[in-house]
Design brief:
single chain; 118 residues; alpha+beta; Alpha-Beta Plaits; four-stranded antiparallel β-sheet; two-stranded antiparallel ribbon; 6 strands
Length: 118
């Protein structure tokens, strides 16, 4: 079943070891959770070498799906927790999500809460 609700995907890319802190901050800001994927980076701030051999820095990619109503709040928490306003700390960006499947339980919970409020 496809859920036609307004959601955004916040994609955060940081150095390995920093995603757990960011995940906790995003959950405090209202996100339900996130997915951490390992990766390698090649940005302008990654120029480390060991014995003359370039080292590809290990990264973590954090995928956080949120309702668009809390996107800015969660994104701000991610920026603060990861110090993303400093060069070389990482990057975060938001992608619009057209369809969502697999989280319909959250939408049903929200509908039940709305009905109780009436």
């Amino acid at each position: 079943m496809l859920c036609y609700e307004d959601h955004d995907l916040i994609i955060t890319i940081v150095k390995r070891g920093f995603s757990e802190t960011i995940l906790q901050a995003s959950k405090k800001a209202g996100a339900e959770g996130g997915t951490i994927i390992p990766g390698r980076g090649a940005g302008i701030h990654e120029k480390s070498k060991l014995l003359g051999i370039p080292i590809e820095p290990e990264k973590e990619i954090l995928l956080t799906l949120v309702n668009c109503e809390i996107t800015k709040k969660v994104l701000n928490a991610i920026i603060e927790a990861g110090n993303l306003n400093w060069p070389g700390r990482g990057i975060a960006f938001v992608v619009d999500v057209k369809y969502v499947a697999g989280i319909c339980h959250l939408i049903e919970d929200a509908k039940h809460q709305d009905e109780k409020a009436k």
